[in-house]
Amino acid sequence: MIIEKYHFHYFLIGKFNKPLILFLHGFMGNINEFDEAIKLLSDDFDYLTIDLPGHGKTQVLGEDEYYTMANTAHALIKLLDELKIPKCFLVGYSMGGRLALYLTLHFPERFHKVVLESASPGLPTEAERLERIKLDTQIGKKLIRSFEKSDFADFLSNWYNQTIFGYIKNHPEYDRMLESRLQNNPKELDKSLRFMGTGCQPSLWQKLQVNKIYMLLLTGEYDEKFIDINTEMAKKCEFAQLRIISNVGHNIHFENTLVFVENIKDFLSVAS
Q1: 92 φ, ψ to 5°?
Q2: How many CB atoms lie within 10 A of CB 124?
Q3: What are residue 219's phi and psi, to 5 degrees?
Q4: What is the DSSP string of 1-30?
Q5: Residue 271 scores a pLDDT above 70
Q6: Which of 58, 94, 189, 206 has a CB 3.0–4.6 Å from the CB of 51, allowing a cystine?
């Protein structure tokens, strides 16, 4: 569907006789990011999944500014309008979690409850944001030099060596996940990183303090960086609760899909 300067690729599954969940994937993910979780949730929920700008088959038809978080968020709200979805649940992972938080804080009337997996409100100071932009620019240069599939595969292998991912490379489905990531276009990923990366997104820390939408914050035991961030988020927002999932790193829904789904069902089924 074409919405303004976006040609969105999405799946909408359901007969609108069940609650609907909008899923937002992480950096280098795509529309299939949550497939295994959705299989376990489909008896109880309808769902909408989307390739975010710079990922999968979604195309940005305008200038680079349309990769930004603010423009992407507004376009997603218009997509929900076109699909006649006035209100839904929202689940976002990592980059998709940051976008989900932005949507929650700017369009609270559109969401019942929100699950943020390994997400953050961004960086609180200008100095931190500038430093992160430098880092993301360096990462982006490596991406656009991935001329061959083997180059991109090497980039991904190095990416998943990061401490936050724990022991993800030991997962029996790691190679399958890698193959899914390889379907993306490195040049498009570079634009996503440069315009919707943590350094570029507006800090949401202050708006988080006045949020009144119930949020579940999920982090993995091996992801100490995001445990610290989400602990602080839970302190600042009385409507947020934090759960730390054992024996996983940053990508909880991949490493332990069953526990991820159990937490979602438990949280979404309880009346606020």
Answers
A1: -135, 140
A2: 13
A3: -135, 155
A4: -EETTEE--EEEES-SSS-EEEEE--TT--
A5: no
A6: 58
Q: For residues 133-143, b (16+ Cβ closer than 10 Å) or e, as one string?
A: beebeebbebb
Backbone φ and ψ of 216, nearest 5°: -105, 125
Which residues lie across from 91 on neighbouring strands?
A: 23, 115
On whether the CB atoms of residues 27 and 189 are closer than 8 A, the answer is yes
DSSP state of 165: G
Residue position matching structure tokens 């909880």: 252
Burial of 202 (0-12, 13-18, 19+ CB in 10 A): middle
- Residue 125, both tokens: 């100071």
pLDDT band of 70, cuts 50, 70, 90: very high
Residues contacting residue 162 through CB under 8 Å, at least 6 positions apart: 250
Q: 105 and 204 in contact (C-beta within 8 Å)?
A: yes
Residue 91: both structure tokens together:
């689940």
| pLDDT, tens digit (0-9, with 9 covering 90-100), for 165-215 | 999 999 999 999 999 999 999 999 999 999 999 999 999 999 999 999 999
Whether 199 contacts 129, CB under 8 Å? yes
Among 254, 220, 215, CA closest to 234: 215
**pLDDT for 272 beyond 70:** no
Crossing angle (nearest 10°) for helices 126-144 and 186-196? 180
Distance CA 152, CA 6 (A): 25
Pairing of strands 6-7, 2-3: antiparallel
Distance between CA atoms of residues 64 and 39, nearest Å = 35
| Contact yes or no for 260/37 (Cβ under 8 A) | yes
pLDDT at 94 over 90: yes
Length of the chain: 272
